[in-house]
Amino acid sequence: MYGTADHAEIFEGVKSMVDKVADELKSKALSYPIALLVSVEIKKDMIEEFLTAIKEDAKGSRLEEGCFRFDVLRDTENANKFKFYEVYTS
Questions:
Q1: What does the H/E/C string look like for 24-78?
Q2: Ordered structural domains, the chain, with CATH
Q3: Residues in CB range of 84: below 8 A, 6 or more apart
Q4: Which is the most buried residue in 40, 56, 81, 83, by most CB within 10 A?
């Protein structure tokens, strides 16, 4: 997602993508775990706000039933880039 989206809009976009993939897999009656790798780049002046928000989001996601893992990874070469690695039962 590019542009001027705030963290709430980013998370809603990510949630929408996750829900779409989950619905597609459910419609095919598959019972495999779902792994997602989401990449985002955050504006430099929004990093602190983003870090606060993503820590809470990750904490909540890890408590969800069926969540195997929710990792937040920061790029070592570009501190504005992050990846979320998520694995769910379905």
A1: HHHHCCCCCCEEEEEEEECCHHHHHHHHHHHHHHHHHHHHCCCEEEEEEEECCCC
A2: 7-88 (3.30.70.100)
A3: 14, 36, 37, 38, 40, 54, 58, 70, 71, 72, 73
A4: 40
- What average pLDDT is seen over the chain? 85
Q: What would the pLDDT profile of 46-84 be if each residue is shown by its tens digit?
A: 999 999 999 998 999 899 999 999 999 999 999 999 999
Residue matched to tokens 């602190």: 48
pTM assigned to the model: 0.65
Tokens of 35: 């792994």
Residue owning tokens 């619905």 = 23
Give me the residues paired with residue 42 across strands: none
